[in-house]
Amino acid sequence: MPGDAATTPAQAPASPLATAHAQLAGAVAFLGYDDGLHRMLATPRREVHVAVPLRRDDGRTVLFHGYRVQHNVSRGPGKGGLRYAPSVDIDEVRALAMWMTWKCAVVDLPYGGAKGGVTIDPRDHTDAELERVTRRYTSEIMPVVGPERDIMAPDMGTDERTMAWVMDTYSVNQGYTIPAVVTGKPITVGGSLGRTTATSAGVVHVTAAALAEAGADLVDVTVAIQGFGKVGSHAAAIFASRGARVVAVSDQYGGVHDPDGLDVRGLLEHVARTGSVVDFERAEPLANDALLALDVDVLVPAAVGGVLDGGSAARVRARWVVEGANGPTTAEGDRVLAERGVTVVPDVVANAGGVVVSYFEWVQANQAYWWTAQEIDEKLEHRMQHAYDEVSTLARREGLSLRDAALVIGVQRVAEAHQIRGLYP
Length: 425
Hints:
This protein is an alpha/beta fold. It is built from 15 helices and twelve strands.
């Protein structure tokens, strides 16, 4: 925030947890909260660290570490993804859980923030091994999760099948089927239409709102997307279907570029065959770093956190950066982009479509009544547009960045819920 030394971007370390704490400190300073409330907002309500042993297919036993952090539950049950990655540690999970708290509050969902993870590389394991890991992890954290306590969803390294395993493990132990214990599960076991593409659709809806504010439209812009996984690939398809020109995409292996616009449908077919965007014959190869510096209107970082630091942000030529990933811009990157006049639509708004439709899925599961795809898309667009409008209005009124405005809204809503509920005993 302007004038707040605690959040001077150049002083803030780039680790996810340090970035999350720096962002919270800025919002707390703006809102004038005291130290006690600040500590309450900064400290997770509950953390669980469990051992996750796995008997591999060859008979060997290996051990992984699993985590579940419930950052805040003042507005409702915890909500957040389950991540499988070798880099997962408790601090990363703490940061992601905190961001989920603000994200749920910004889009006004009756949830708190949570996150889970297992330190495993799913690419190194068979489907049978991943199922055993998932079921063991679920059994270990079962006392603290549930449809009224903490609801999991897919994240990096997990998918709808993972959620089906979680749901089945939890349900078998409870003695009856409980679809609402997870979201992002297959349609056949109580999933929701539109959930697979929800995060990507939300990115596009928010991009359209930001463009409209500047008098532009999706059909007027070029888009580059870093990351071609669950978020990036669907976002590319939705952008293209709405008339935007997607000129570059990349994944962990490399990227492709066509200034006239990629054949997104053909690219998706190529990825389905080969597992990567690399060597797509109807485009030129492009390095991942070079994608961030392309002369485009909209840049969507949809891969991992921290890719836009001070150095890479200085090379960005896009007018808008719309954060499809969690935490892709460091504090220093934010400062550099702001100085260069780049509008950053922050992750707590831009990629909230996933948790919005997760909420819709949870509601449907609780009432055993399912909505049409059109109903879900209309409700999602309305929710994303409304959230962006609230954030943008506050940003203009108070002279804040969109990120600072979003955090102020999220933190204030959580703090008010905490204050109204009071302390027990």
